[in-house]
Design goal:
The chain has 507 residues and is of the alpha/beta class. It is built from 21 helices and 15 strands. Bound molecules: pyridoxal-5'-phosphate (PLP).
């Protein structure tokens, strides 16, 4: 193997010692040093090179010369050949039927090697550790409405309770008739073309269905266009399925709309699909019809299918009207995802769905795969499906939150103003959902590592945010704030953030 880059040398040294990324993390923590999962993964994939202290730690763990590892100059060093007892890998495959004094260790599969999910990643682990010590953490990191006082509509809870005894068995693998009928009617209201009951699947949240579709579609090396920044589950599931996520840019200067030229420039012969997240997490953008038409044109020109994640479609503000991209593409194969986690504040009930629409003839075989995987999981949670009809029809309590005077609307306004008032921070105003993705002036704060920024903020102010890199954003110059906590908490956070940034310099 050539060893020109840091990542090459790191991987060569790891492979020579039969050490996996998880081993390095474990060995580091056994020595009381901190090495994050995403850190190691980014070093090994070549996305990021470590700073001197992290490089020295890695060299030490691997038993190689630190300057060889950092620069490639000199020799790996004698220490590499002589495995030191505390870093020697534990057996991975050897096992015996006889009693052995060494405990067999079970490793995660190598399929997970490049999978990242920082929304619940290393900074969150550190916050949990601090909480366990009794510290109070201000959590601006996860889009889970219930802990912030957003309650499920009473009628929804009542109806689930009263139907519980009828939900003891498995349902049809696609879902209950009543749930799918209600979803179909919702699809009609959003003008999705060529939808029928067989093309509607319920899932344990949209999450399960994203995973299912990626498994059904992607062969090793197949490419799929995913936004940067993204909701990272898309990238993670595409990677886990063996596909290659290719990120197209969303343009902050243009209200975070997808950059269509960039999107099209990234299409290759191996590209199978375009993913859009609209309204967007983490930017809060809502795409106008012209942008959606542009995406449809690209999909049409290159014969791509479209996956549209629309879980925030009922949380639009400022009179924005959400348009489903599938409604503009009757001649293409589209899959539209949504659910009740956010619009009905029942993320814990795990209820989502997907709707296939448009030209379904070209995706018969893919749908065969989807059905197979859907059957294999038997069905999604049946009590959760039982409330879909109640939730989707009639009065929508979420509307109160997103209109002037409503909690989400007012909290969005406050956070947007407060962030932009901080010297060195700028943020585009979100139009939907409950996230904002501010930009940090990295020169001013000398920031080169956004995970370190998030950790420093956590340690000093006990504020937990998610770094931009956690959304597959390539530069260390953004972070995401969830503005669901109550106004008093948001005020405290924004004041503390301003104070932190009045003196923070990284490195
Ligand atoms: N899609 C997006 C864009 C999200 O932000 C989330 C959750 O935050 C999901 C999907 C997952 O939703 P569910 O709770 O339905 O699994």
């Amino acid at each position: 193997m050539g060893q020109e880059t840091f990542a090459d040398r790191l991987r060569a040294a790891m492979s020579e010692r039969s050490l996996k990324q998880a081993d390095l993390i474990r060995l580091a923590s056994e020595r009381g040093a901190k090495l994050g999962k995403s850190q190691v993964s980014q070093y090994a994939s070549g996305k990021v090179e470590p700073r001197a202290d992290a490089c020295a730690l890695l060299a030490d763990l691997l038993g190689v010369d630190a300057s060889w590892l950092a620069t490639g100059e000199g020799a790996p060093g004698a220490a590499r050949a002589a495995a030191r007892p505390e870093t020697a890998p534990r057996p991975t495959t050897a096992h015996t039927t006889q009693r052995s004094s060494t405990m067999r260790e079970f490793k995660k599969s190598s399929k997970l090697e490049n999978v990242l999910y920082d929304v619940r990643g290393p900074v969150v682990d550190e916050a949990a550790r601090m909480e366990a010590e009794g510290q109070r953490i201000l959590k601006l990191n996860i889009g889970n409405p219930a802990p912030f006082g957003f309650r499920a509509p009473d009628e929804v809870v009542h109806d689930m309770r009263s139907q519980l005894t009828e939900c003891e068995g498995y349902s049809d693998s696609r879902g209950l008739f009543s749930a799918r009928k209600a979803i179909m009617q919702y699809a009609q209201l959003k003008h999705l073309p060529n939808v029928d009951m067989d093309g509607i699947y319920t899932g344990n949240g949209v999450s399960e269905l994203i995973q299912l579709c990626m498994q059904a579609l992607l062969d090793n090396g197949d490419e799929i266009l995913i936004p940067a920044p993204d909701y990272p589950l898309w990238t993670a599931c595409a990677t886990l399925a063996g596909g290659t996520p290719v990120h197209y840019l969303c343009d902050e200067q243009a209200d975070w709309y997808p950059d269509l030229a960039d999107m099209e420039s990234k299409v290759t012969e191996r590209t199978k699909a375009i993913v859009i997240i609209n309204p967007n997490n983490p930017t809060g953008a809502v795409y106008p019809r012209e942008v959606l038409e542009g995406i449809v044109e690209i999909a049409r020109r290159h014969q791509l299918m479209i996956f549209s994640d629309e879980i925030y479609d009922r949380l639009c503000m400022d009179g924005e009207k959400h348009v489903s991209i599938a409604s503009l593409a009757p001649d293409l194969f589209c899959v539209t995802f949504s659910g009740l986690s956010k619009s009905h504040m029942v993320a814990g009930y795990r209820v989502g769905w997907m709707i296939v629409s448009g030209n379904r003839r070209c995706a018969r075989d893919f749908m065969y795969g989807v059905n197979m995987l859907s059957n294999m999981r038997l069905c999604s949670n049946v009590p959760a499906q039982s409330i879909v009809q109640t939730a989707l029809g009639g009065y929508q309590s979420v509307e109160r939150y997103v209109e002037p005077g409503g909690r989400i609307y007012e909290q969005r306004n406050y956070v947007y103003e407060a962030l932009n008032a901080i010297d060195g921070i700028t943020a585009v105003k979100p139009k939907a959902a409950f996230y904002i993705f501010p930009k940090i002036d990295v020169k001013k704060f000398n920031i080169t590592d956004d995970e370190q920024f998030a950790l420093d903020l956590l340690h000093e102010k006990r504020i937990l945010v998610t770094r931009g890199g956690g959304f597959n954003w390539g530069e260390p110059d953004h972070f995401r704030i969830v503005y669901l906590p109550r106004m008093e908490v948001l005020r405290e956070c924004m004041e503390d953030l301003a104070d932190f940034l009045s003196h923070y310099r990284q490195g």
